[in-house]
Write a structure and sequence with these properties.
heterodimer, A: 132 residues, mainly alpha, 2 domains, two-stranded antiparallel ribbon, B: 448 residues, Ferritin, 5-stranded antiparallel β-sheet, two-stranded antiparallel sheet
């Protein structure tokens, strides 16, 4: 099962084969510094991608494609709104504030607001009554 | 000045209801900032209580950040209000465009043999002028729209290198506290917009959740409208307009609208405005009774002077302008029929667009689907549609050699398949539309 804490850092597999979970020890390997750096980079990239996706989702909600149509100065609308999002996220990062947490709060507020909206409830009730 | 067709397409290309959803998201952005502010202050108080000078410094820093978020919240809220105003303004401009197109098409329908060419051109020029004005106003509103820049970021002791790194607490959705460590470990975010604008192509897959009908910049009456759910709400008058007949109802006074005078008339109509106990609209009588006449249209009843049929559509009472018995009553009936045809087409066009947007599918105008205009006479291509050179500016289609070419507005330019559908009930009235009036299928409810 590898070294006890205090010894060499060891990585353990969280996967177990069917039928052997109870009797076989999990796979373990002593951590190699190069492997660790690579793994950390991969995790960091994954987190960054998630964060970027969250920002993109917010941008899509605020400045949806085609929302402003072919009217003159529609690009100004799009640019103003997308810049608003990105500039604030950048400012939070500059201030060392966790923008990911902020984005979670925004998304949570949107979900709560929609779920609690009387119009949403009425819509759901109407669908239940007439579509089932 | 752009051509009639171009202006119509231009004004119909935005989706104000999506802008309304964006404004709601900006308000959620403000709420997110408020939550951050509250938690920062909470964390600051905790730090100030127990850790001496360091705790006091952290508390002061948290307060600065909280104030920053307060400003962000106010800015986002103000911007949402401005965006909402633009969305509301947009619904009015689209109503202008839809009306111009409906009036033009009615003029076309009334000109089967080209005898009224001048009238058709006048209607088109008038519509072009009003649409041009609307496009200019809308573009001007877009041009002057500006979002506030972020307030100056509070400087931290870490940034100046003069003190120990502060700790900033931030909330998590579960109510816990996350400690964000300053320094080089923060996530680097690419602040460059990753998607260029794709104008004129409404996005559905990644777009915002649209507000329910009847809210925001939606021009479709929602479930709070009871039996009128699925009707069009005129953004100018506030009246509900039946997309199947063009009848108007004033929800404020609960009375029908006279199609000639545009004023409410008659007794207050008893109708249900709440969801509970409501089925669908009536089909055999009552408030939303069947307004067809042997397969014809409601506006067609006006041409034949069918007093009982028309009265049935208005809760049993004939609009006062049609019951005067004066010498002009004949032209008033005709005027009422025209008015209803235009209103019906505007309502059908705009509710159809919104329903298509909600369903995530492209919109096909139901203009040829046995509507009121068709009842005014069989439609043949009038001579004037082969435009002279000096009329070419009215059209946006490329001209043939010699400056004469056939013209059909985009909304009517279809192939044989589309013509074959004429007379059929458009599928948008029944397909994918949980808010539709459902006149064909729903059980009777009121007034029987």
């Amino acid at each position: 099962m590898g070294s006890p804490p205090g010894g060499e850092p060891t990585a353990y597999s969280t996967q177990t084969s069917d039928g052997f979970a109870a009797e076989a020890p999990s796979y373990s390997v002593t951590i190699n510094p190069d492997q660790l750096n690579t793994a950390v980079k991969q995790v960091r990239d994954d987190l960054s991608a998630t964060h970027t996706a969250a920002i993109q989702a917010l941008q899509d909600a605020v400045a949806a494609d085609g929302s402003f149509g072919l009217i003159a100065n529609s690009t100004n609308m799009y640019t103003q709104l997308t810049n608003f999002i990105h500039q604030h996220i950048a400012a939070m990062n500059d201030a060392h504030i966790n923008s990911q947490t902020f984005l979670l709060n925004v998304e949570a507020a949107a979900r709560i607001g929609t779920d609690a909206d009387p119009a949403t409830k009425a819509e759901a009730a109407w669908i239940r009554r007439h579509m089932q | 000045m752009a051509g009639f067709e171009d202006l119509y397409e231009q004004l119909m290309s935005p989706t104000p209801v999506t802008q309304s959803a964006a404004a709601a998201m900006l308000r959620d952005f403000a709420t997110g900032a408020q939550l951050m502010s509250q938690h920062l202050r909470g964390g600051g108080r905790t730090a100030a209580d127990g850790t001496g000078d360091a705790g006091q410094a952290a508390s002061e820093q948290a307060e600065l950040h909280a104030q920053w978020f307060d400003t962000v919240a106010q800015n986002a809220h103000d911007a949402a209000t401005k965006l909402d105003a633009i969305a509301t303004q947009g619904t009015t401009h689209q109503a202008t465009a839809a009306q111009a197109m409906a009036e033009y098409q009615q003029a076309l329908a009334e000109n089967p043999n080209g005898a009224q060419d001048e009238h058709v051109v006048r209607v088109m020029q008038s519509g072009q002028s009003s649409m041009n004005s609307a496009a200019e106003q809308w573009g001007s509103a877009y041009g002057s729209f500006s979002m506030p820049a972020p307030p100056p970021v509070p400087t931290t002791p870490n940034n100046s290198g003069a003190a120990a790194p502060p700790t900033t607490s931030a909330p998590t959705p579960t109510g816990g506290t996350h400690i964000a460590q300053p320094g080089k470990h923060g996530t680097v975010v690419d602040t460059t917009p990753t998607k260029p604008p794709k104008l004129g192509t409404p996005g559905h897959s990644t777009g915002p959740q649209l507000p329910p009908p009847g809210t925001g910049a939606s021009t479709t009456v929602g479930t709070s409208g009871g039996e009128f759910a699925g009707w069009y709400k005129d953004p100018t008058t506030g009246y509900y307009v039946d997309p199947a007949t063009g009848r108007e109802f004033d929800p404020v006074t609960s009375r029908w609208i006279d199609p000639v005078t545009g004023l409410p008339f008659g007794a207050v109509t008893q109708h249900a405005t709440h969801l509970e106990g409501i089925g669908g609209p009536a089909t055999t009588g009552g408030l939303l009774s069947d307004t067809g006449s042997g397969g014809g249209t409601f506006s067609g009843l006006f041409n034949s002077g069918d007093t009982s049929g028309v009265a049935a559509g208005y809760g049993g009472q004939l609009p006062p302008s049609l019951s005067t018995g004066s010498a002009a009553v004949g032209s008033l009936w005709q005027q009422a029929g025209r008015s209803l045809s235009v209103k019906q087409q505007v309502a059908a066009d705009l509710t159809g667009r919104e329903q298509a947007l909600r369903a995530g599918r492209p919109y096909t105008p139901p203009i040829q689907a046995g509507g009121g205009i068709g009842s005014l006479g069989s439609r043949t291509r009038p001579g004037y549609v082969t435009a002279e050179e000096d009329e070419a500016g009215l059209f946006s289609s490329p001209t043939r050699a010699g400056g004469r070419r056939p013209y059909l507005p985009a909304t009517q330019a279809g192939g044989k398949d589309e013509k074959r559908r004429a007379g059929k009930r458009p599928d948008w009235l029944t397909d994918d539309d949980v808010f539709g009036a459902g006149i064909d299928e729903a059980p009777a409810v009121l007034g029987e």
